[in-house]
Specification:
Helix content: 55-70%
Largest sheet: 2 strands, parallel
Strand content: under 5%
Shape: elongated
Structural class: mainly alpha
Oligomer: single chain
Number of strands: 2
Order of helices and strands: HHEHHHEH
Strand order of the largest sheet: 1-2
């Protein structure tokens, strides 16, 4: 996730969530407001920021440390495993061809060597396109998870902040200088209590610990899974083979 994408997602989801909160105001309130000139709008149903404390929250960390986020991210990782295996196989095949060119190229005639170089370049292009498609698919589905969970978590954040005297909450998902916060103390960070409150509200049980030792804490360290782990093979380093002078 890019920092720009996260900022846009947070702004969009919070805007929609607050609008939804406003629209859920009781109908009796709307009727009474219609009878009173200059009555406050239904948006007054949203808790007002009357506090003075400044708080921080790692939105990404909160989403992917919540039981629901962890569950959905684990499911996505399992879904992407076949593609990861496929990409790993493609990468290993290219590496094998490069090794063949490196170790046997001097013994090949020009036609065979040129054919091998073209084969490497062709497979490299296919691999890079497949890698890009897989990366975009993974990022897109991670974005869907973020949007879905944040849409339900946003009211929990607003409620916790309003009940605990916060006047402003700043997202620390992206470290400075990509993000706006240069430094903050854990005493003002509300990520963990928000995650705990959301876990209770969602009712989703904690996923079983992973083989690597379980999920990371919610205090900001949790990050979404990366796209398929197979790394792109390096572009062919081989230069076009020099033509040998014709035999006498």
């Amino acid at each position: 996730m890019t920092s720009k994408f996260v900022r846009i997602l947070v702004a969009t989801v919070f805007g929609l969530s607050l609008s939804a909160l406003a629209q859920t105001a009781p109908a009796t309130n709307a009727a009474s407001q219609a009878a009173v000139p200059n009555a406050p709008s239904a948006a007054s149903a949203v808790p007002a920021a009357t506090g003075t404390r400044v708080g921080t929250i790692n939105i990404e960390g909160a989403i992917f440390s919540s039981n629901e986020g962890r569950r959905d991210l684990d499911a996505l990782s399992k879904k992407l495993e076949p593609k990861q295996t496929e990409l790993k196989g493609m990468s290993e095949e290219i590496d094998g061809l490069k090794k063949q060119l490196s170790t046997q190229g001097d013994k090949m005639n020009d036609d065979a060597k040129n054919a091998l170089v073209r084969q490497i370049e062709s497979k490299q292009k296919v691999f890079e396109r497949s890698m890009q498609d897989a990366r975009e698919e993974a990022q897109g589905q991670q974005g869907e998870i973020m949007q879905r969970v944040l849409g339900k978590m946003a009211p929990v954040i607003v409620k916790y902040a309003s009940e605990n005297g916060f006047g402003i909450i700043i997202d620390t998902s992206q470290p400075w200088p990509q993000g706006p916060v240069v430094w903050y103390g854990q005493s003002v960070d509300i990520t963990l209590p928000v995650v705990e409150a959301y876990n209770v509200k969602s009712g989703v049980p904690a996923p079983p610990p992973t083989a690597a030792g379980g999920a990371k804490p919610a205090g900001g360290a949790a990050r979404p899974a990366t796209p398929p782990a197979a790394k792109p093979a390096t572009p062919p380093a081989t230069k076009p083979p020099a033509t040998t002078p014709p035999k006498q």
